[in-house]
Amino acid sequence: MTKTKKNDFIILIVWNIIAFTLSFIIGINYIITAVLFFLIPSIYISLKNKDLIKKSTLFSILFSTPTVVIFSYLAHKDGAWKNYSIINLYIFNTYPIDDFIWGILYVYYMVIFYEYFFDKNKKHIPNIFYKFIKALTIITLSFLLLIILIPQFYIPYVYILGVLTMFILLPCIILINYKKIMQKLTPFLFYFFYMFMLYEYVANIKGNWSFPGQHFIGHFKIFSISFPLEEFLWALLAAPAVIVYYEFFADDRK
Predict the structure, then answer these.
(1) Over the stretch 91-150, which tens digit does the pLDDT of each residue have?
(2) Considering the entire predicted model, what is its pTM?
(3) Which DSSP string corresponds to the chain?
(4) Number of Cβ within a 10 Å radius of residue 229
(5) Rounded Cα distance, 157 and 138, in Å
(6) Are 143 and 72 in contact (CB under 8 A)?
(7) Which of 251, 244, 254 is nearest to 128 (CA)?
(8) How far apart (Å, rounded) are the C-alpha atoms in residues 97 and 79?
(9) By the 8 A CB rule, do 184 and 247 touch?
(10) What is the tens place of the pLDDT at every residue in 53-68?
(11) From CA 88, how far away is CA 96, in angstroms rounded?
């Protein structure tokens, strides 16, 4: 890592503390806090290397959209978490349309941060990415048909099942065959875990989201707040899992 990038890394670490502080003052909903924790540092990195913007944006939109369609619906149905739309607009009267904005900002920050600090800033998108998107599209459309036909459909304990499948099982299968990816994940994991735990704390304090359900494997407590153990695993594993998918489907797998 060059001296410039080391300085940028320190700036972002400090910014998280600033975002944490500002969130206590103006973080009345999870879109505002997402702007502070995700969007502003993403803009900073994007201005440093504009070549990364197109690829990062494309992956963020195409990956996060079907994830939100499926997982946000199931999570709200099971009470895994609950958040509120700032424009009072809900998909299938279940989850806020704002989740799409939050998801895109979250994934974009992960990808552009990873590309800038730990990867080789490659703009090429392999053909397998478009096959991956076609598969996600088919899965998403099938899911939409399912919940239209069976509106009461839900999966109990969907949060831990999602974590085990999407953040542990599938990434591990990929990493078994592409071990080089793992070498860059450790510092990336620690940064995003640090960032998201700050976000988690202030989001709980400010009521950005809640966990009203009962299908959890346990709870994790930090000072005055308590949240499901599944949320802690999300904070720890979501970012490296997304980068594994990114490397495998949209990058060079190295």
Answers:
(1) 999 999 999 999 999 999 999 999 999 887 667 788 899 899 999 999 999 999 999 999
(2) 0.95
(3) --HHHHHHHHHHHHHHHHHHHHHHHH--SHHHHHIIIIIHHHHHHHHH-GGGHHHHHHHHHHHHHHHIIIIIHHHHHHTS-EE--TT--EETTTEETHHHHHHHHHHHHHHHHHHHHHS-------HHHHHHHHHHHHHHHHHHHHHHH-TT---TTHHHHHIIIIIIIHHHHHHHH-THHHHTHHHHHHHHHHHHHHHHHHHHHTTSEE---S--S-EEEETTEEEEHHHHHHHHHHHHHHHHHHHHHHS---
(4) 15
(5) 24
(6) no
(7) 251
(8) 17
(9) no
(10) 999 999 999 999 999 9
(11) 7
User: Which residues are 221's β-sheet partners?
Assistant: 226
Joined together, the tokens standing for residue 78 give 């099971």
Hey, where are the domains in the chain?
A: 3-250
